[in-house]
Specification:
heterodimer; A: 256 residues; alpha+beta; two-stranded antiparallel sheet; 7 strands; 36% helix; elongated; B: 627 residues; alpha/beta; 5-stranded parallel beta sheet; 18 helices
């Protein structure tokens, strides 16, 4: 079953680096991460790669395979032909630490800026929520924080100068998750636009395409958030309601 | 002298899974300055792998449930070897710990009346597991992670510094606990990214490092699970309890080879999935042990009725505790009735409509589709046992999580006692929360009660530095990956799910050789700077820990001449009430190896004993112990 595959792996650090060629054994059923591990065990014990669960659940092993942002553990070798050269490079948007490992601290900094869940006065054990209402935010909480959406989003991938003003799809989705959380009492529409740069997103759906959890980031999080922002700005009743404090969440209706 | 950084904290928590984060939250809520040291990035800990749910007797789905029933189930699951006080605290406090998560933003699946839904699981009398589909662990880790962020935001508002009171040291690995005399005074670590060393000065350390699965070849555990906390504690003079008990989860993937061992959640069975052999027989009906005869269905019809009418039927034997199911699968495969890829069949496709499978088991559907090209809504999975969890661990005081070394605390998988000889599914996530909080409290109380704080002796730091740099002194030493592979093979083949004295003796001899080889492994500098993100070096250091826990497991397994829970001796197949009274304790021997001694099991408090029928107690206890 086994064969020798041709791999080109980026080696280097923040200063410099280059693609290095390898020939490495591949067996039936393996994924790209298995092959990287075989390189470590047999040819390059210092090849740096970040990984944990090897089951697509932790989101650690993000990289670019033949230029496509992917999880190394969820990319099966059977998707390539045996004579194909497989090129593995670190994710492009974040600075390289070494080899395939990048500095993703940008994401943790952005996570800290999103105002946390606020359940109001409801005590532990007292929450009552309908399944249908929790499902919207549950979809976003499937996120494994692989940051592939952050990596692929051209707002920061191609324009580094947008980084301070733009939280990226993952954290705009986090704002949406809290905005749609049935028990959260804050209104997050203004901060989405003003503090996290929702307006910079022009819904090219690249984030949705690369999401290994198949979360519909654009359709279910970003576009609805944009609509809510617009609703708040331009709907006079919602505007008035929010001013006098009877409308807190965008999907609240005015009391009859 | 190698350059190193020094940082002072009140409490240092080692491990950033559910237990570590919960301990850190508690210590910070009580005003302490806390460091969380995480071997991986923040939010990636192995807790994310937990699928089924968090067991807590909230009684949302069946109001007959309460902490006493949960306590009884836990003791039965652990075959009465549990530390009864831990099982009691866990059963009593689990609901509060789950509700608290909800107040921090967690979104569990709901009942019709809007409360937290609960699902059935092996060994639990009533539907008890709070869950989010089959990704409950991710919800738990994300919620505690986000709670830490919320606390950092409070600190930022007050001081202008997010890390004023709680700092997460991502991708940082502790290699030694530091002691001032007989007390803990800190920890020595390296930062993965740069390889630079850090000395954490702290009077209290909470270990929450998880398990030891990476000492075995077929495991559901990730690379971090190298027994760090177990080994650090032992090396610092603490004791390890009942290390022979290892849970082989009955259902791991068996194919493709590269994912062998990856977990298939027990929820598949809780939601109706059945186990069959190559003859199409639901073989679990042939494996109901005497102690569980009254609680399990004897016909398929009754078992199937239970899913819709649990009050009038007994549960199907697919939902026996994990040790029973794992042994049964092992026996079927050995008898030649296995599946083509060396496991047995786990089928949910003929039991539930496709749409329900995808809704209830989304990550299993995804996992099999992506990794094995199997659509579980159309065909059965093939599964077999995988090393999943270690019941044994650091011996702690049940109420405070204090280990025998002053200033040292432990919680979660790396601590011992709570689960006895076998852990029930779902009890792990609430174990993390209940005892994470308690260890956090224990550490704070300890720090508050101290007079003068301990100081870090220079000699301790020098010794730890030399030890960490040692693999670089042998650039032509043996490849650590090769030694690791041999260690895993030894443990898997000789100290696995079914054990014999002869094989265990062979394993112990093998470990002597491996100890010599581990002392001789070497690595080369990785480019400029030398130690930045150097996986070979990291593994070389982790090997020490895996060796120590392997020696503990093998020694205790050889000593315990009975079969119970996660310890099956082919040469001693029965469960012995005399052995139930014995805890096996490992500690550091004078020669740097592992010493083993017997210690009596504390007698259960009488009001807890009264929760059981005497007829049931007779199956576990000696005549003199009966009420």
């Amino acid at each position: 079953m086994g064969y020798l595959a041709k791999f080109r792996v980026w080696r280097g650090d923040s200063g410099r680096g280059a693609l290095e060629d390898f020939e490495v054994e591949v067996n039936e059923g393996e994924v790209v991460l298995d092959v990287i591990h075989r390189l470590q065990a047999t040819q390059t014990p210092d090849l740096a790669v970040r990984w944990n669960c090897k089951a697509g659940k932790c989101g650690s092993c993000s990289a670019e395979i033949n230029g496509k942002p992917r999880l190394l553990c969820m990319t099966r070798m059977s998707t390539f032909t045996q004579d194909e050269v497989i090129t593995v490079t670190p994710v492009r948007t974040f600075p390289v630490i070494r080899d395939l490992v990048t500095d993703v601290s940008f994401n943790y900094a952005k996570a800290r800026e999103v105002p946390s869940f606020d359940g109001g006065d409801v005590g532990p054990g007292e929450f009552r929520m309908k399944q249908i209402d929790v499902e919207r935010s549950q979809e976003f909480r499937k996120c494994i924080e692989c940051f592939l959406c952050q990596n692929v989003c051209h707002v920061i991938r191609d324009h580094e100068d947008n980084m301070p003003a733009y939280a990226g799809p993952r954290f705009l989705m986090r704002v949406a998750e809290l905005e749609m959380h049935p028990a959260d009492v804050l209104d997050r529409r203004e901060i989405a636009q003003d503090d996290f740069g929702l307006g910079l997103c022009n819904i090219t759906k690249c984030c949705t395409e690369v999401c290994p959890e198949h979360i519909k980031i654009t359709d279910n999080a970003l576009i609805p958030m944009k609509e809510r922002v617009v609703g708040r700005k331009y709907d006079p009743l919602v505007w008035l309601g929010s001013k006098i404090g009877i409308v807190r969440k965008p999907d609240d209706t005015l009391p009859a | 002298m190698t350059e190193l950084e020094r940082h002072s904290y009140d409490v240092v928590v080692i491990g950033a899974g559910g237990a570590g984060l919960r301990a850190a939250i508690e210590a910070r809520l009580r005003g302490k300055k806390v460091a969380v040291i995480s071997k991986s990035l923040f939010g990636k800990a192995h807790t994310v792998m937990a699928e089924g749910g968090a067991a807590a007797a909230m009684g949302n789905v069946n109001s007959n449930d309460n902490w006493q029933v949960h306590f009884r189930d836990t003791m039965r699951g652990g075959k009465f070897l549990n530390n009864w006080r831990m099982a009691e605290l866990h059963a009593r406090e689990a609901p509060d710990r789950v509700w608290e998560l909800e107040a921090w933003g967690a979104l569990f699946d709901r009942t019709k009346d809007g409360r937290i839904s609960q699902r059935n699981f092996g060994g639990h009398t009533y539907p008890r597991l709070a869950h989010v589909g089959d990704r409950t662990g991710l919800e738990l880790i994300r919620t505690t992670q986000q709670k830490i962020v919320a606390l950092q935001q409070e600190d930022h508002a007050e001081t202008g510094d997010y890390e004023a009171r709680i700092k997460v040291w991502a991708e940082t690995t502790v290699t030694r606990l530091l002691k001032d005399g007989d007390r803990i005074c800190g920890a020595f670590a390296y930062v993965r990214e740069t390889g630079r060393f850090v000395v954490f000065e702290a009077p209290a350390v909470v270990l929450a490092t998880g398990g030891i699965g990476k000492a075995f070849k077929v495991t559901s555990n990730s690379w971090e699970y190298t027994g760090d906390g177990h080994a650090l504690a032992l090396l610092a003079g603490a004791t390890l309890l009942n290390m022979e008990f290892i849970q082989f989860h009955p259902t791991g993937m068996v194919w493709p080879p590269s994912v062998k061992g990856i977990l298939v959640t027990e929820s598949v069975r809780g939601d109706g999935g059945v186990l069959t052999n190559s003859e199409g027989r639901r073989f679990m009906f042939d494996y109901i042990p005497d102690v569980f005869k009254e609680q399990y269905a004897t016909t398929e019809e009754e078992g199937d009725r239970w899913y819709t009418d649990p009050d009038n039927n007994r549960r199907p034997p697919e939902l026996l505790p994990r040790d029973e199911v794992a042994r049964a699968i092992n026996a079927e495969v050995k008898a030649g009735r296995g599946s083509p890829q060396g496991g047995v069949f786990l089928d949910v496709s003929s039991r539930l409509p496709a749409e329900q499978i995808i809704r209830k088991l989304p990550s299993m559907h995804h996992q099999f589709k992506e990794l094995a090209d199997v659509d579980i809504t159309k065909e059965p999975m093939q599964v077999g046992p995988t090393c999943h969890y270690v019941m044994g661990g650091i011996e702690v005081d049940p109420d405070t999580g204090a280990a025998s070394v002053p200033g040292l605390f432990a919680a979660g998988e790396c601590s011992g006692g709570m689960h006895g000889s076998n852990r029930l599914g779902g009890n792990s996530l609430t174990d993390l929360l209940v005892f994470g909080k308690r260890a956090g409290d224990g550490a704070v109380d300890y720090v508050d009660g101290l007079g003068a704080r301990p100081a870090v002796p220079e000699a301790e730091v020098e010794a730890a530095t030399a030890e960490a740099l040692d693999p670089f002194t042998r650039p032509d030493g043996e490849n650590p990956y090769a030694v690791h592979a041999d260690l895993q093979a030894t443990m898997n083949e000789l100290v696995g799910i079914i054990r014999t004295a002869k094989e265990l003796e062979t394993a112990l001899e093998g470990l002597v050789g491996l100890r010599r080889r581990i002392a001789e492994v070497g690595v080369k500098d990785a480019g400029p700077g030398g130690r930045g993100y150097h996986p070979g070096w990291h593994l070389a250091l982790d090997l020490r820990n895996m060796l120590i826990v392997s020696e503990c497991v093998a020694k205790a397994a050889l000593e315990r001449e009975e079969s119970r829970g996660g310890h099956t001796r082919e040469d001693f197949p029965g469960m012995s009430p005399e052995w139930r009274k014995v805890n096996l304790v490992c500690e550091l021997a004078g020669d740097g190896g592992v010493a083993l001694r017997r210690q009596p099991m504390p007698a259960m408090r009488s009001d807890l004993l009264e929760l059981f029928e005497t007829a049931e107690l007779k199956k576990y206890l000696t005549e003199e112990e009966l009420p």
